[in-house]
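[agent] plan:
  1. take the single chain provided in the ticket
  2. run structure prediction with default settings
  3. attach structure tokens to the ticket
  4. add a short note for the reviewer (M.T.)
[agent] executing step 1
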Amino acid sequence: MKVLLINGSPHVKGCTATALEEIAKTLNECGVDTKISWIGSKPLSGCVACGYCKSAGQCAIDTDMVNVIGAELDNYDGFIFGSPVYFASPNGAMLAFMDRLFYSHGAKLQHKPAAGIVSCRRGGASSTFDAMNKYFTIRNMPVVSSTYWNSVHGNTPDEVRQDLEGMQVMRNLGKNMAWLLQCIEAGKQAGIGKPELEAQVKTNFIR
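[agent] step 2 finished; step 3 output follows
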């Protein structure tokens, strides 16, 4: 079993990375392999609604990490997405990354457990966490919970480590992710497959 953790912060070793590393450590202790990928610090374009991905299976914008990470999704059983809080929301690069990844590579994410985690100096954690969860529920992804909302507080990695409750929440999230992956694997061994979904029906309200 393998989990991909995605660092959406412009800082490769900042507060978000500190929280993700705590989760990865816990997952490893539970026998789950992990990889932490960073979306980088360069400008990352939002979706331009060109429709290219519908036929190509990847995003037309090929200058950042969206297609790089998208090409790896089949190798993982679960996902953790981490973002800092910018104005009570995920940072712009992470929102653009998730918009494009979930639209162009969404089929590779379906029915795989996921969770979002956020880091903030003081406020805005809950609204940022809420925004990230919307991505998982539109892609049929079981959302992994913890013992509190998935956030850590601090302005530096050292301050985040002093948030004892926040770090405990990260560890419990890792344990819950490992447990759910083990349950899914046990289900497979017992002959329980993924649910068969109905063909999507779209209803436009303006006709």
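[agent] step 4 note for reviewer: The two ends are 46 Å apart (CA to CA).
[agent] ticket updated
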